[in-house]
């Protein structure tokens, strides 16, 4: 099971849904989160940070390394490793995916009673269109979706 969590960015104007694979890392490993509106507060340091479409995640990589070692995970705790392997990453493909997904379900819900097949088909096609949009926009996790 993976714990999920919503984190507000440094300026407080936006938030991201995050997921922690195997609950291996505590949320404090994400030292700071910058949205596109507060991104300019920092200059990117690739040793500790990862940028994804204007969002910046700053990790405590030394702390993360301790947790990885303790749980027998081999690999160096770089921002890319932590993010791409899912140890601390967006829930879904982008920071607001969780919310977009639940809104989509809510919007289509009336169809369930009327036409279940159409509901499932619409859910699938709208979600695929959303993923294609994320992919085109360059979101990191969407590139492999
Ligand atoms: Zn912000």
Write the layout of secondary structure elements.
Layout: E1 3-8, E2 15-20, E3 30-34, E4 49-52, E5 55-59, H1 61-70, H2 79-84, E6 89-90, H3 97-108, H4 110-114, H5 116-137
Antiparallel strand pairs: 1-2, 2-6, 3-5, 4-5
Bound molecules: zinc ion.
Summarize the structure in words.
This protein has 145 residues and is of the alpha+beta class. It folds into two domains: 3-90, no CATH class; 97-144. It has five helices and six strands. The protein has helices at residues 61-70, 79-84, 97-108, 110-114, 116-137, and strands at 3-8, 15-20, 30-34, 49-52, 55-59, 89-90. A three-stranded antiparallel sheet has the order 1-2-6. A three-stranded antiparallel sheet has the order 3-5-4. Strand 4 and strand 5 (55-59) form a beta hairpin. Helix 3 (97-108) packs antiparallel against helix 5. The longest helix has 22 residues, at 116-137. The radius of gyration is 17 Å and the shape is globular. The two termini are 21 Å apart. The mean pLDDT is 95. The structure holds zinc ion. Zinc ion (ZN) binds next to loops.
Q: Compute the average pLDDT.
A: 95
Unreliable runs: none
The hetero molecules present are:
zinc ion
Sketch the topology as an H/E string, one letter per element: EEEEEHHEHHH
Strand percentage: 15-25%
């Amino acid at each position: 099971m993976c714990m999920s969590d919503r984190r507000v960015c440094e300026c407080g104007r936006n938030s991201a849904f995050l997921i922690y694979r195997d609950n291996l890392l505590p949320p404090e490993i994400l030292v700071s989160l910058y949205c596109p509106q507060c991104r300019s507060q920092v200059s990117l340091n690739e040793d500790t940070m990862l940028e994804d479409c204007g969002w910046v995640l700053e990790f405590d990589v030394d702390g993360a390394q301790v947790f990885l070692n303790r749980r027998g995970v081999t690999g160096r705790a770089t921002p890319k490793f932590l993010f791409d392997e899912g140890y601390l990453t967006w829930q879904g493909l982008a920071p607001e995916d969780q919310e977009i997904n639940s809104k989509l379900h809510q919007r289509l819900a009336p169809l369930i009673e009327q036409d279940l097949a159409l509901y499932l088909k619409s859910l699938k096609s709208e979600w695929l269109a959303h993923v294609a949009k994320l992919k085109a926009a360059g979101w990191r996790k969407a590139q492999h979706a």
